[in-house]
Specification:
Layout (H helix, E strand, L loop, with lengths): L1 E3 L4 E3 L4 E3 L2 H5 L5 E2 L5 H15 L1 E5 L3 H10 L4 E3 L4 E5 L1 H6 L4 E8 L5 H13 L2 E6 L7 H5 L2 H6 L2 E6 L4 H7 L6 E5 L11 H8 L6 E3 L5 H16 L1
Parallel strand pairs: 4-5, 8-9, 8-10, 10-11, 11-12
Antiparallel strand pairs: 1-2, 2-3, 5-7, 6-7
Helix pairs in contact: 2-3, 5-10
C-alpha cells in the first residue's frame, strides 16, 4: 500500500482511494460494491474506515455485507436499498441529531427500493428525512394530504416509475428544489426507465433537476448539499 500524503490518496494497486475527499467536499468516498472482488472490498472498507471513521457502500449484496461484518461487527446492512453502513462511535454521535429536513416522496411501493436508497443515504450523512410513500397520481388525494410536510422541507426527492407524473405535480406544489429520480419500474414501453427519465426532463414544472435512472444515492447527495447549505 502506497500513501501519497501530498495528493491525499492511497494506492492499493487495484484501486486509488480518495482519502482527502471529505475535506474537499464534505463527503467521504462512497464504495460502489457491485462487481467488486471480495478481497478488494475488504481492503477498501478497512482503508477508508481507518481514514474517515465511516464507510457507506451502495449496491451491496448480503454476501458482501458478511465480508464487511467480519471486520466491523457494528456494521449494518439495509436489505431493501442494499446499503452497507459502517460508522465509528464518534461518527455515530456526530450525526445522531439529524439536521434540516429532506422529504423523500415515492409514487408506488415498487419504487421504494430507490426511495429507501435516497432516504438512508441522506440519513447516513446527518439529514432529517421525512418519508412519504405510495402517493402516486392515480390517487392524487394521497399526495395532496401531505402538502404541509412537502412545503416544510428544505428539498424534496421525488421518486417515480411508469410515466413519472408525480414529479411534475410535486414541482407545481412546492417552493423548494425538487430532485427527480426516474426508476426502471414499468411495463414494456417504459424501456427500463428511459421513458420516465425523458418525461421528467420534459416536465413543465419549474425547479426540478433530474438524476439518472434508479440513482437514489445521487439524489441524496445533492439533497444533502442543499439541506446543509440551507442550515448554514
Amino acid at each position: 500500500m502506497d500513501m501519497d500524503s501530498e495528493n491525499g490518496f492511497v494506492d492499493l494497486g487495484f484501486a486509488m482511494l480518495d482519502t482527502d475527499r471529505k475535506r474537499r467536499t464534505g463527503f467521504s468516498e462512497v464504495v460502489f460494491c457491485q462487481g467488486k472482488e471480495d478481497a478488494h472490498l475488504e481492503k477498501i472498507f478497512s482503508t477508508l474506515y481507518e481514514k474517515n471513521g465511516e464507510v457507506l457502500g451502495t449496491r451491496a449484496s448480503r454476501a458482501q455485507f458478511d465480508i464487511v461484518h467480519r471486520i466491523f461487527p457494528t456494521a449494518e446492512y439495509s436489505e431493501i436499498p442494499r446499503l452497507i453502513k459502517v460508522q465509528s462511535e464518534k461518527r455515530r454521535l456526530e450525526v445522531k441529531d439529524k439536521i434540516g429536513k429532506i422529504a423523500v416522496v415515492s409514487a408506488g411501493t415498487a419504487d421504494s427500493v430507490v426511495a429507501e436508497e435516497a432516504a438512508e443515504c441522506a440519513e447516513f450523512w446527518g439529514g432529517a428525512v421525512e418519508r412519504i410513500y405510495d402517493v402516486g397520481v392515480s390517487g392524487i388525494h394521497r399526495l395532496l394530504s401531505k402538502t404541509d410536510i412537502l412545503n416544510s422541507a428544505h428539498v424534496v426527492i421525488a421518486v417515480a416509475g411508469m410515466e413519472g407524473a408525480l414529479v411534475s405535480v410535486v414541482g407545481g406544489l412546492v417552493s423548494v428544489p425538487v430532485i427527480a429520480v426516474p426508476t426502471s419500474i414499468g411495463y414494456g414501453a417504459n424501456l427500463g426507465g428511459i421513458s420516465t427519465l425523458l418525461s421528467m426532463l420534459n416536465s413543465c414544472a419549474n425547479g426540478i433537476s433530474v438524476v439518472n435512472i434508479d440513482n437514489g444515492f445521487g439524489a441524496a447527495y445533492i439533497a444533502t448539499q442543499i439541506n446543509r447549505a440551507t442550515i448554514k
